[in-house]
């Protein structure tokens, strides 16, 4: 393949380069639309217009070796978001050696794939401008065959690094051509590597999730030695405390025989409260009272009242019950009907709860998906709102007992590997690219 650097079609971004090869071009000019049509073609988006964009340039082929590159901060210099909004077509190469190195990558038999998190693209104008910028980049390398994936908008977490949704789509595309990617001979290069000045570690975590060798732009394009000093931000499941399922353990989870009572669950969404009920309370005949099912708190209160007055009197209230005022409704019912009320506090952190949310919505292995209905991503506000309003349950609220329930993963080894991946962080939107 002819070297892309020999192409006659160049953007204004390439016109001036620093003499120092280790420095990117700082004389970037705002680009303009290509004078001729590029070979870039946008295919049908994955998961809708605001899911994952998918484009191809110059008829890329499927090979067993894949070179995956992050875009901003790796192939082109990252511009502050304010500058991107003011000058949406402005761009320049990360370094003058990028063009020749990309040509070398193709000549070595790699399929080139570009990937980018673009969660800040939230309206049609911004999206159109960004596509025009990608067309400019493609016009600068018309002989370079590549495939590009870009997760846009704020809702489709599955396709945003370090989640592996786009990689699964890539494997499907290659499989249609009868090609299985050799991960050991492929690699991922990105700038979000968890180093001291990096904005995040999402690129390195993505490579770990997929099982690809990882390199920073400095390592791949400039031949620098790997930097061993990096930190992977977010929840490291290996650091989760190991302990008993519940404390105190001096009293049983379920009385034998069961007695009339209210059991009030407290905790973030996605900490396994409903599964806990099914495993421990449903077999004993307890009734499941849940606001997601009933639709409102008033209906939950009514359901408990009916069960205490006319039913078995065995009730589990499976809601988040985050503060004293919410819990008071059920404590008052317990006093009225003169039954005990126990609090089961699911103590997992917001990071663990969000991690489980990502797993259930974005990474369930087939063995789990076959027995569980698909789950939507629970909105962030459900977690941040709980954290802001949470009041730790106390015995003097009127509880007979408070048990702390610890998170313990329950599944096969395959399922644990899927759960143990790194996922998009709950507070990462502003940093993602």
Automatic annotation (TrEMBL):
Here the segments flagged for biased composition (Basic and acidic residues) are: 27-36
Q: Which UniProt keywords apply?
A: Kinase, Transferase
Q: Name one GO molecular function term.
A: ATP-dependent polydeoxyribonucleotide 5'-hydroxyl-kinase activity
UniProt name for this protein = Polynucleotide kinase 3 phosphatase-domain-containing protein
GO process annotations (BP): DNA repair
Task: Tell me the domain of life.
Answer: Eukaryota
UniProt key word tRNA-binding:
no
């Amino acid at each position: 393949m002819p070297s892309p650097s020999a192409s006659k079609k160049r953007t204004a971004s390439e016109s001036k380069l620093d003499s120092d090869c280790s420095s990117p071009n700082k004389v970037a000019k705002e680009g303009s639309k290509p004078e001729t049509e590029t070979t870039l073609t946008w295919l049908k988006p994955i998961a809708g217009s605001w899911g994952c964009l998918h484009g191809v340039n110059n008829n890329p082929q499927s090979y067993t070796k894949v070179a995956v590159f992050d875009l901003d901060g790796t192939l082109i210099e990252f511009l502050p978001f304010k500058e991107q909004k003011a000058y949406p077509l402005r761009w320049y190469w990360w370094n003058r050696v990028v063009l020749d190195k990309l040509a070398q990558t193709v000549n070595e038999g790699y399929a080139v794939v570009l990937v980018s998190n673009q969660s800040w693209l939230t309206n049609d104008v911004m999206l159109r401008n960004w596509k025009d910028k990608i067309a400019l980049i493609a016009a600068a390398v018309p002989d370079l065959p590549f495939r590009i994936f870009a997760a846009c908008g704020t809702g489709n977490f599955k396709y945003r690094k370090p989640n592996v949704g786009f990689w699964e789509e890539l494997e499907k595309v290659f499989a249609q051509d009868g090609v299985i990617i050799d991960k050991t001979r492929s690699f991922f290069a990105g700038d979000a590597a968890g180093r001291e000045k990096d904005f995040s570690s999402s690129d390195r975590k993505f490579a770990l999730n997929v099982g690809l060798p990882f390199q920073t732009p400095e390592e791949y394009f400039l031949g620098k030695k790997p930097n061993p000093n990096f930190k992977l931000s977010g929840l490291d499941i290996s650091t989760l405390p190991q302990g008993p399922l519940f404390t105190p353990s001096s009293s049983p989870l379920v009385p034998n025989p069961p007695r009339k009572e209210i059991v009030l669950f407290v905790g973030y969404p996605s900490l396994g409260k409903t599964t806990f009920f099914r495993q421990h309370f449903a077999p004993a005949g307890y009734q499941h009272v849940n606001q997601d099912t009933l639709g409102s708190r008033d209906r939950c209160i009514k359901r408990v009242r009916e069960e205490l007055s006319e039913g078995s009197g065995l009730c589990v209230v499976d809601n988040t019950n985050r503060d004293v005022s919410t819990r008071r409704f059920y404590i008052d019912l317990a006093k009225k009907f003169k039954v005990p009320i126990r609090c089961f506090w699911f103590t997992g952190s917001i990071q663990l709860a969000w991690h489980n949310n990502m797993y259930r919505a974005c990474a369930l292995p087939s063995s789990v998906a076959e027995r569980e209905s698909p789950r939507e991503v629970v909105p962030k506000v459900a977690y941040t709102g709980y954290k802001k309003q949470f009041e730790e349950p106390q015995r003097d609220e009127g509880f007979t007992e408070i048990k702390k329930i610890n998170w313990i993963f329950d599944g096969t080894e395959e399922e644990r590997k899927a759960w143990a991946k790194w996922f998009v962080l709950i507070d990462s939107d502003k940093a993602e690219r």
